[in-house]
Amino acid sequence: MNAEQKARNLVRTIPGMETSDGAGVKLRRSIGANQSLRLDPFLMLDEFGTENPDDYIAGFPPHPHRGFETVTYMIDGHMRHEDHLGNVGELKSGGVQWMTAGHGVIHSEMPQQESGRMRGFQLWINLPAREKMKPARYQDIPAGDLPKIVLDGGSLKLIAGRFDKNGESWAGPINGEPGDMATDPLFVDLELEPRAQFRLALQHGHNAFAYAYEGSCRVGGKTLQHQHAGILGDGDYADIEAGPEGLRLIVLAGKPLGEPVVQYGPFVMNTREEIEKALDDYRQGKLTA
Is the pLDDT score of 31 beyond 50? Predict the structure, then answer.
């Protein structure tokens, strides 16, 4: 390792706060629980996880989005996505949907099970001003298309970005329009045995956070508790050590956009005027035109 490289430390933790969304789906929100808890370009992270169908059965009936991307990672369960154009996607255990809302989408995400565990995440990622009004786009990735890399004492699933190990290189299945995605995202799901250690390389200058959804860990010598998001300071890598019960951890990193964010519910733009235009377009049935 280059002696000039710098470790990332845990600089802030954010507990997952119980809330509900959609038609009453119970979840925990950490990043984005309020506007001061965003991490450019990440707007929100929701964790949902329950075996009680009353907590998820009503789902997310039709609702609009404009100006950002949503990423749904389904760890357990089955949901169906449908939109105003007739697009249909089946999101099953281990799969991912990466939706670029762009100019506008009206869609629903509804459970396709009446019992059993439903667990996963939804992440919101901002788009730069120049891309907020581009056409909507979907990438539906089944579990089998996610690279799974064996580590000493664990494994890593690669959803977006690149990962290098011992001279080998893997690329996640998420890709943008021709050329790089503006936020150059990295999204990994890391599983470690009790007390196992792992060093994850991260692009210097990119914002990054981790969320422990099973067990706890130490990052740079500081503890990240179960169901907490941990903001990482800048650097080139993060040293992660699983707690005594083992660990499942998602890590997200992306290039900050450095642009103003004005959000009103499901609309994320750069100015108040653009939000008012989005609301007016929605009322007039022009959001997706």
Answer: yes
